[in-house]
Amino acid sequence: xxxxxxxxxxxxxxxxxxxxxxxxxxxxxxxxxxxxxxxxxxxxxxxxxxxxxxxxxxxxxxxxxxxxxxxxxxxxxxxxxxxxxxxxxxxxxxxxxxxxxxxxxxxxxxxxxxxxxxxxxxxxxxxxxxxxxxxxxxxxxxxxxxxxxxxxxxxxxxxxx
Amino acid sequence: xxxxxxxxxxxxxxxxxxxxxxxxxxxxxxxxxxxxxxxxxxxxxxxxxxxxxxxxxxxxxxxxxxxxxxxxxxxxxxxxxxxxxxxxxxxxxxxxxxxxxxxxxxxxxxxxxxxxxxxxxxxxxxxxxxxxxxxxxxxxxxxxxxxxxxxxxxxxxxxxxxxxxxxxxxxxxxxxxxxxxxxxxxxxxxxxxxxxxxxxxxxxxxxxxxxxxxxxxxxxxxxxxxxxxxxxxxxxxxxxxxxxxxxxxxxxxxxxxxxxxxxxxxxxxxxxxxxxxxxxxxxxxxxxxxxxxxxxxxxxxxxxxxxxxxxxxxxxxxxxxxxxxxxxxxxxxxxxxxxxxxxxxxxxx
Lengths: 161, 349
Prior knowledge:
The complex is a heterodimer.
Chain A: H1 3-25, H2 28-44, H3 54-73, H4 96-105, H5 109-121, H6 125-132, H7 136-160
Chain B: H1 8-17, H2 22-34, H3 53-64, H4 68-71, H5 76-86, H6 91-100, H7 104-115, H8 130-133, H9 144-166, E1 176-179, H10 181-186, E2 196-199, H11 202-206, H12 216-224, H13 228-239, H14 262-296, H15 300-316, E3 321-326, E4 332-338, E5 343-347
Antiparallel strand pairs in B: 1-2, 3-4, 4-5
Helix pairs in contact in B: 1-2, 5-6, 5-7, 12-14
């Protein structure tokens, strides 16, 4: 990859990677730091990385950084731990998208990231598998289970509201 | 064999299956005549057969078969609905979905519910620091190595230029002209360069041919009585001609004031000479004084050797021996130091 292609990768993908990271950690400063680190890693290997694969490389680097970070901070909540009564009307969910994103936050980290890559970036199972180091079947399982979880979460919230 | 209550069941089974012999048949019927309470067993239905192996294995396999939905721990209808949304269904799967969930409304509702779970990217979120991430190419002519070399060369040139500029001052090796009173009092009109008198540097002052070098005796005398130097200097100064030497190093511009203060003039001329002579003589006097003192006392070098031998013996358990030689007056005139592989003989006087 040339320097021009690197800069092109900045223009094309930094927004997407930033959104992906920010939606996962909810911290702008940390998200920006991760983006800096991610592109720094890319720059160090830019001569080895093919421009066709650069998007996957960026998401993969960001994904692994996120995994490390979230495991360190242990911020994620489990479905069983969710207290629906405290997360329902009092929060005043204004629209479905907000509810959905709150539900996404409660997904296990791998499921969350896989679904985000699928929906935000439109990656195929195979591409997601390459990014996350999973096989296609595993990616599919994560996505299907996440859909089921999200559907049930939304349904329960609607019942409570 | 007699048929009795203990064995009649075996004959009965043969009878029911039709494999009993005529003799046994008559005996069995006779037995039932004698025991009418058991006679109903003759009508036992033995048509109940076990299922065939094919039928058994079929039903067993049916229970073992798994659906793809089981992989995801999902009900089949949910699995098919999600799959339809994610990647689409084949015709067979479409048919299966219809069979699994025949109610169209329920199917549509479920499909809508799953459709709600699709995340939508918030495009208002953008990364604002892209400029920090971009990289720029340096032209080969301006790579870091060349840039550093250029900077170094420029620094050297600047240094040389600054040295040249600062050394552009007038030559001070020859005496400069300074203002004097004599010309003024003579009433003559002088050119600008004649309005100054010769100013000698300190170096020239020291190398005057009439200057006497101090003798050893005078220096010893001086060491005993340092105050003598001052009086001597004053007498010598009085005897000197009144030559107006200025001990300036830089360029001597003509003074703005035509009159030279006698005190200033004397101070300029005498002070450097006084300081040089005084310091030099004091220094020489101290050396001679040290020599004189050393002549009357054991040599410092001997003392050093003695202390060195003591240290050596302390460290090496008396491996070094020192022997001193005295003259008639009892003074040490020589010594001998002997070690394992070394012997030194030294005369002190």
